[in-house]
Amino acid sequence: MNDYYGYDGLSGGALVALILVYTILPLAIYALYSWFYMKIFEKAGVQGKWRAWVPVYSTMIFYKLGDLSPWLVLYLIGGGIIGSIIPFLGWFLILPLIGIAGRVIDLIAAWRVGLKLQKDAVWVVLYFFLPPVWLGINAFDKSRWNAGIQPASWAANSLLGDRTVWDGIPAQASAAAPQAGYGAPQGYAPPAQGYAPPAQPGYAPPAQPGYAPPAGPAAPATGAPVPPVPPTTPPAPPAAPPATPPAPPTAPPAAPSAPPAAPPADPTQPPA
Residue 269, by phi and psi: left (phi above 0), alpha (psi -120 to 50) or beta? Predict the structure, then answer.
């Protein structure tokens, strides 16, 4: 009887331990990760704290902030599902490769996020061994987000490079290197503030008829003096002198008339 009850007690304790290990503990770890993600997303300018609490979606945002395509998360999940349903080959080849690829991509995203939070590349070693500690330090320290770091070397890669534009998540300037002839979208641009009404059409009265004064002389242009324009036709030559001199007068002028012989008589004297 005692053995029976002891067996039941052992079974009950094992059941509680299994519940803690497979339900409560994973939920606690997930809540801790989501809390750290929320604080890091706030530093990066992500709008909406709820994004950090959505499974899978929060990891996609973390990859996007790390200059990686967020669709890589779905590719890895799809590869894991395919590997789990294929016997032997999937279990012993596909799943291990998917796990290694996912771990490497996760480390790359953490490295880029750490650079934007003023962390050296050596900090990724801490993320490799203790991801929650790395997340907690970056979530609550006084570091500021700086997206203007050197663009990622894989930015032009169609598989790894991030070209997505999501509303509420700022596009990272370091995610896409500028290419000649290609304008990559630069994230969410807020709408223009205010409304500019169109110009109101009006009536322009016709010009009144009248006398228009002649235009004045054009003002001389400023700058270097303009040389005078040479005349198009040469000036007329002077008139030729007369061929023969004028003829002299034919007769001398007439002599003046003779004076009177005697002076006139005095009117006061009586006649003789």
Answer: beta
The helix (H) or strand (E) run that includes residue 9 is: helix 2-19
Question: Distance (Å, rounded) from C-alpha 180 to C-alpha 203?
Answer: 48
Q: What is the largest CA-CA distance in the chain?
A: 219
Cα–Cα distance for residue pair 205/50, rounded to 1 Å: 63
DSSP state of 159: T
Q: Whole-angstrom Cα distance, residue 25 to residue 17?
A: 10
Instruction: Quote the CA–CA distance of 229 and 221 in Å, as a whole number.
Output: 16
Answering whether pTM is above 0.90, one says no
Query: pLDDT tens digits for 248-268?
Result: 555 555 555 555 555 555 555
**Separation between Cα atoms, residue 132 and residue 136, nearest integer Å:** 6
The length of the chain in residues reads 272
How much is the pLDDT for 22? 84
- Name the one residue in this structure whose structure tokens are 């598989």: 159
